[in-house]
């Protein structure tokens, strides 16, 4: 049975792909959950019209994400003050929420899903590299500098 995927599904294909699956998988899972529709002439033609609109949306999202990444690129680094114990270890940790709070003070809105901490939460003073990823194809690195509060 041939179906048109409405969402990206791992090991099957991307959104808009026409694939052949077993009839039971299509009838019992893909179609009822809204992840696919039956591939007949009417559905294929209507989906082609929708695909053009979806591609325009994707390019708009990409351009918006690119402009947001440029704003982060201009910042280059942010500084966070934290209480520090012996050996430069922070009481608690600096996480995504703390980073978002500091960036929002600079006037840039960021979602917590767009920040990646490669080494987990930050627990030591010094400079740490953090990734801002507003789009799967865009990665912007910036530095978080943690300084002890006196």
UniProtKB/TrEMBL annotation:
InterPro entries reported in the protein's UniProt record: Ribosomal_bL9, Ribosomal_bL9/RNase_H1_N, Ribosomal_bL9_bac/chp, Ribosomal_bL9_C, Ribosomal_bL9_C_sf, Ribosomal_bL9_N, Ribosomal_bL9_N_sf
Entries under PANTHER family matching the protein: 50S RIBOSOMAL PROTEIN L9 (PTHR21368)
Domain of life the protein comes from: Bacteria
Family affiliation: Belongs to the bacterial ribosomal protein bL9 family.
Function in brief: Binds to the 23S rRNA.
Positions of the Ribosomal protein L9 domain: 13-40
GO molecular function: rRNA binding; structural constituent of ribosome
UniProt-listed GO biological process terms: translation
Protein name: Large ribosomal subunit protein bL9
A Pfam family hit: Ribosomal_L9_C
GO cellular component: ribonucleoprotein complex; ribosome
Organism encoding this protein: Buchnera aphidicola (Melanaphis sacchari)
PROSITE patterns associated with the record: RIBOSOMAL_L9
SUPFAM superfamilies named among the record's database cross-references: L9 N-domain-like, Ribosomal protein L9 C-domain
The entry's keywords: Ribonucleoprotein, Ribosomal protein, RNA-binding, rRNA-binding
